[in-house]
Design brief:
Elements lengths: L3 E5 L3 E2 L6 H19 L3 E9 L3 H10 L3 H18 L6 E4 L3 H16 L3 E11 L4 E3 L5 E2 L5 E2 L7 E10 L5 H10 L4 E2 L1 H12 L5 E2 L1 E2 L15 E2 L1 H6 L1 H4 L18 E5 L3 H15 L7 E4 L2 E3 L2 E2 L10 H8 L1 H10 L7 E3 L1 H30 L12 H23 L2 H22 L1 H7 L1 H22 L4 H10 L37
Helix pairs in contact: 2-3, 4-9, 5-6, 10-11, 12-14, 12-16, 13-14, 13-16, 14-16, 15-16, 16-17
Bound molecules: 5'-O-[(L-methionyl)-sulphamoyl]adenosine (MSP).
């Protein structure tokens, strides 16, 4: 049976327009989804929008529209952005859909049946921007006397009847989970953070609100809507068909990887597994968190006016170029700075010089000196073998990096081979062999074609359109998955005329 793989992105709040931070998490998840499909897995890749709660209700009110109409517009824009960025999702979930309401009501009932929900009264701090409750001790006081959450979000004092989830009862089970499954939270710095948060003791969690109504009704409790994070997290099982365990997609649960930003790790690594334990459902295997993109060193924010529109960036530099840049420039879990200079350098050095030139140099020699016909393999020399072995080792190296979300290290391994191939072509000088030893020239060019084929095959998840072009030029048919690498290219075929895949980026004259 084919192994399944369920990958998710966070579902995005529809309170404002999408920016590069949203696109980033989705692109990383997309790379893994595409990689797993090429590696023979039965993949389910989910993304969508988080549409309830006070934050969305306020944003709609500011625009003078009802929340549903507002959510429809913004959700459609997020979807258009995801399509434009090449996100190959299998389902686009919206928390205002009927299937999700049914699923949330059932999750609630199961948790309640287990005895982990009770009615009480909430009094404390709430940050609408984070849709999160905070303890007094977590807040800092500004010079003007106002209080802010650790994220910098303003807080307000809330006092209302509320249902509570008995989170305090899950401390030991959560700690056991982190201990028995160290891979559950990545990177490890975040695991340590979450572990010490849980060790510090857990308060019961307020899971219903009564002072507004833009949310999913609590079953049999008029006036109560579910806390937006309970509603939002549950999207992952809704999409698998919950509560219908006969649904065709139920086989995908539990999730293999939840991709999240570092700001929402607590919700995914503490609240979510606790809700699932209480409901008697299997737990996700991994929550992996990305760091922040800063704009020229500063945090992106609407008030600073430095928010980057992903579609704009792709228009200026090319979609594949941006996808590559985002995953290559910084380690996934760390913060990094986005600047035009850094993007241009990656495009001109890594893509145009290293990879683009390698393919163009090799393929134009095939066109010019071999009549465009794919040369046959020769008996490999030591130098040939070293390069071919390095290329053959790449799929396994990349598999390990994708499973750990160390995308930048995986790409560095590929670039080591690209640089080695550039060294090889300089050493072997096939252009000179054209006059002295045509057979050897052909063998050298074939080593290069075979190496570039491995590279282009593995880079497909990162740069789908460009690598499709490169594989076309190498004469690779429609079998482009990793298993197909075991089959040599069909002999004697004429390759299409080579065309550069990665133009250098030249700053337009102003
Ligand atoms: N709706 C919640 C998630 C619910 S999941 C059950 C939410 N939405 S969000 O739209 O505010 O942000 C979603 C994600 O966008 C963040 O967790 C993070 O992954 C990503 N990013 C937003 N800004 C970012 C940067 N500046 N840099 C990198 N990623 C950031 O939270």
């Amino acid at each position: 049976m084919t192994q399944t793989c369920f990958i998710t992105t966070p579902i995005y709040y529809v309170n404002g327009a999408p920016h590069i931070g949203h696109a980033y998490t989705s692109i990383a998840a997309d790379v893994m989804a595409r990689f797993k499909r090429l590696d023979g897995y039965d993949v389910f890749f989910l993304t969508g929008t988080d549409e309830h709660g006070q934050k969305v209700e306020k944003a709609a009110a500011d625009k003078g529209v009802d929340p549903q109409t507002f959510a429809d517009t913004v959700s459609a824009d997020f979807r258009a952005m995801s399509d434009a960025m090449g996100i190959s999702y299998d389902d686009w979930i919206r928390t205002t859909e009927e299937r999700h309401k049914v699923s949330c009501a059932e999750l609630w009932r199961r948790i309640e049946k287990n005895g982990d929900i009770y009615l009480g009264h909430y009094e404390g701090w709430y940050a609408v921007r984070d849709e999160a409750f905070y303890d007094e001790a977590e807040l800092t006081t500004r010079p003007d006397g106002s209080k802010v959450a650790p994220s910098g979000a303003p807080v307000e004092w809330v006092r209302e009847p509320s249902y509570f989830f008995r989170l305090s009862a899950f401390q030991d089970r959560l700690l056991k989970l982190y201990e028995e499954h160290p891979e559950f939270i990545a990177p490890s710095s975040r695991r340590n953070e979450v572990t010490s948060f849980v060790k510090g003791g857990l308060n019961d969690l307020s899971i219903s609100r009564t002072t507004f109504n833009w949310g999913i009704q609590v079953p049999d409790a008029p006036g109560h809507v579910m806390y937006v994070w309970l509603d939002a997290l549950n999207n992952y099982v809704t999409a698998c068909g919950f509560p219908d365990e006969q649904a065709p997609r139920w086989k995908y649960w539990p999730a293999d990887v939840h991709f999240v930003g570092k700001d929402i790790i607590r919700f995914h690594a503490v609240y979510w597994p606790a809700f699932l334990m209480a409901a008697g459902l299997p737990l996700p295997r991994r929550v992996t968190s990305n760091g922040w993109w800063l704009m020229d060193g500063e945090k992106m924010s609407k008030s600073l006016g430095n928010v980057v529109e992903p579609r704009k960036l792709a228009e200026i530099f090319g979609l594949d170029q941006i996808r590559y840049f985002l995953l290559r420039e910084k380690p996934f879990g760390a913060d990094g700075s986005l600047s035009h200079a850094a993007i241009i350098s990656r495009i001109n050095v890594d893509l145009a010089n290293d990879l683009g030139n390698l393919a163009q140099r090799s393929l134009s020699l095939v066109a010019r000196n071999c009549g465009g016909v794919l040369p046959t393999r020769g008996t490999p020399t030591e130098d040939d073998k070293a390069l071919l072995d390095a290329a053959a080792a790449l799929p396994d190296l990349m598999r390990a990096h994708i499973d750990r979300q160390t995308f930048h290290d995986g790409l560095e391994e590929v670039w080591k081979v690209i640089r080695a191939a550039n060294g090889y072509i300089d050493r072997q000088a096939p252009w000179a062999l054209n006059k002295t030893d045509k057979a050897r020239m052909g063998a050298v060019l074939r080593v290069l074609v075979d190496t570039i084929r491995v590279v282009a095959t593995l880079l497909q998840p990162f740069m789908p359109a460009s690598m499709a072009k490169m594989l076309d030029q190498l004469g690779v048919g429609d079998q482009r998955n990793f298993a197909a690498l075991a089959m040599p290219l069909p002999e004697g075929q004429t390759l299409p005329h080579p065309r550069g895949v990665f133009p250098r980026y030249v700053e337009p004259a102003t």
